[in-house]
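seq as requested:
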Amino acid sequence: MVKGILRTSSALAVVGWAIAMPAMAQQAGASATGGATTETPGAAAAGTPAGEGAAPSAGIQDIVVTAQRRSENLQKAAVAVSAISGAALVNAGVTSPSDLSKLVPALVVHPVGLSSSFYIRGVGASSLNSFQENAVAFSVNGVFYARPTAPAGTFFDVERVEVVKGPQGTLYGRNATAGAINVIPVRPTFDRVSGGIMAEYGNYDAKKVQAALNLPLSDTLAVRVAGQYVDRDGYLSDGYDDEGIRAGRVQLRWQPNPGFSILLSADVTRQVGKGTGSVLFPSPQNPTAPSPNRYIGEADPRITAILNAATLAAFSNTPPFSSFPQSTILGLVANPATDGYQRNTFWGASGTITADLGFADLTTILAYRSSKPDILSYAPGFPSRFKENDAQVTAETRLSSKSGTRLGYVIGAFYFADDLKSYNNFRQGLLANTEYQPRLSTESKALFGQATFSVIDTLRLVGGLRYTDETKDFAGATRNTSIFVPVAPFVPVGGHLNFDKVTWKAGIEFDAGPRSLIYANAATGFKAGGFYPSAGKNTYEPETLTAYTLGSKNRFLHNKLQVNLEAFYWRYRNQQLTYVGPVETTPGNFAQAGVTVNAGKARMYGAELETLFAPTSHDTIGVNIQYLNARYQSLVYNAISTSGAPLLTACAVSNDTRVATPPTRLFIVDCSGKPGINSPKWSANLSYEHVFDLGRSLNLTVGARSRLETKSYVSFDFLEFQRRKAIPTPMPM
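struct tokens:
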């Protein structure tokens, strides 16, 4: 076992069942081009889709993915991608984006404030305001989701999920610095009435139900309706970290002939509950705080008593606060309370047209999405209100060459428009209350292409380019009030930004044997700059990443053993860092809010091993291990103390040359040389599954799954108590 393992989670002897009937067996979905996929659920997919009772096949079955915008065998795709079947998602209890970490060692997902923040190999973004977007491109049914809150309620009736690791600047482009996550729902089929239902009950009064029904209306027209209901009490003692999702999706597919199809899709999600919570870490300032492993939330009376004592100790003997009555001193810093909530609504509609032109396949996707999150969160440690109204339009068209040609290619164009209106409030008590009402309009246009040329039958060269032009317009107002300035007007803020960038990919592929592929490539990624709410400087620059990859994919032992190995080296420039930092509300007056700045450069290198062993048709063993060495070569940012107290950080601190109104103080923090956050040096996913054939279309599945991680920091303060400790969480198989 790797030394220093701090986080482990597992589940043993979890029993699952599958029942199939002639008219009620869930079918495989459709490929990206509208035809039936050749994916065969089996050992490689870690199980069969929910409701399908087909007997397991001998050896490891092939999986078809669309990670490179065309259908291809996973083992023949010269790209670092992990494919997870719908059955594996169900068996692992995946109902939200944060659950994906259970299945992919390279991926760390955290619910932070406004959203789920994705990190792939230490590259990601934490959304603490309405402006920040993820560094991982998230899409469902080929539709890009811009808002970081929007992925909620998408993990049901899913054929597979693809996690593409590394910058995807050629084929995905926008906000794909770290990689891409593609969710592919099961699509309607024409052959028969089919469907399935899955119900689950667990601790914390967890209730989960998924259902789907496929209805052929004719030989060329079919509809599929699916839904999900999730309700679970909070993991924390104050009720936070709960889950409440009500989601539905309907798809209508028309295919008058094998060369043409139209897929219309509409979905809606309602996310409810108390939302993300927080715990108080033991520290020199709070030595009596209980261990985070006890799951005592910060709104618990046991914690608020500790916080009140710390507030009195910090201010009672500090002028001018020492002259205040105790009740006022206790109000200087707002404690977490139990009234937090999330009342989020997301819906969208899309149309996908695919046509066989003879020489190539044409795919066009048009989509509209609406995101309306309404959140009161105490996850930053104080009350933060986020309310948004976002409307997004996307259009993409791609022309893909036929398979088997010497020159394979994908060329296309992409258009994105987004209009965001929001209200954000960081209320830290009487010391600071920051509000802003931004409106942000974004327009992005891109042309892209990638080609693979076969020099000989076993050797191929790869090259790709993408040109992106993005414009952002910002208008709004901000203000800050406090015990010293109880009334203040809103100050208008705004700006205009334009960015253009060429990203590229170059690589080589070699077939070392009938079931062995070796590949090497270099690729770049780009994420546009943007705004944050400040009356002074309020912009940040684009971030870029260059990745070098060497990989091999292999099958051995008569197709019973799969071994995939990848080594990588990433160079990160102008990283966009979002945190609670200083914003200028009026010239010379500073408050705290969600700030995004560029913080120098970083490098990440390591290796990932994915193995799958199917010794029999009923047994599957999976071992996925990643080694990651991530370090910030340059990480310098500004910080604020609204009380005037020294900063609590393990980094070098100096005074900011800007002068703030007392008692507020500004600092410059230098964390250069520190390890990457959310970057465990070792992470592993282990699994075992055995399928008992009970006859009469009945299967009994028994298995175990575990995830292991070494220590990793969760904050840019790099304090020892901010290292992620052992948090055992159940992981159903």
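Residues 5-722 form a domain with the Maltoporin; Chain A fold (CATH 2.40.170.20).
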